[in-house]
Specification:
It is a single chain. The chain is mainly alpha-helical. It contains 5 helices and no strands. α2 (about 50-65) runs antiparallel to α5. It is extended, with a radius of gyration of 20 Å.
Length: about 130
């Protein structure tokens, strides 16, 4: 049988705190709330099934294969060399490298992961 989705939605999200008013802002807030609830349910299903860990492993493999990981290491090393080893914190590295890292993930990797997620959603009837 189907899963009782209501049990996955924390009580603070049940009504999303949005009144039934007709203002455009309230309607957008309600849509955002429904989207957030759906993402929360999907995340729970991915975790419960073990698919999230498999997707994470696939992502790690693809990023190594395409040289992304080595590129990020190189960027980190260059930043540390420029600033000096004693003048760089992990937070500094994260702040500088994260936008570059996210922006440089190959489209083919993103597409493959998205396809795997879509296949999971269809097979799970979510």
């Amino acid at each position: 049988m189907g899963t009782n989705i209501g049990k996955y939605i924390p009580s603070r999200h049940k009504n999303c705190g949005v009144s039934s008013g007709s203002s455009p802002g309230a309607e957008q807030s309600k849509q955002d709330c429904v989207a957030n609830e759906a993402l929360e349910i999907i995340n729970i299903k991915l975790i419960e099934s073990g698919e999230k860990e498999r997707l994470m492993e696939l992502l790690r493999e693809r990023l190594v294969e395409c040289g992304w990981k080595d590129e990020m290491k190189s960027l980190c090393r260059a930043f540390i060399k420029k600033k000096g080893r004693n003048n760089v914190t992990v937070d500094d590295l994260v702040h500088v490298i994260t936008p570059k890292g996210r922006g440089s993930i190959p489209d083919s990797v993103k597409a493959e992961l998205l396809q795997r997620i879509r296949t999971f959603l269809v097979s799970s009837a979510i």
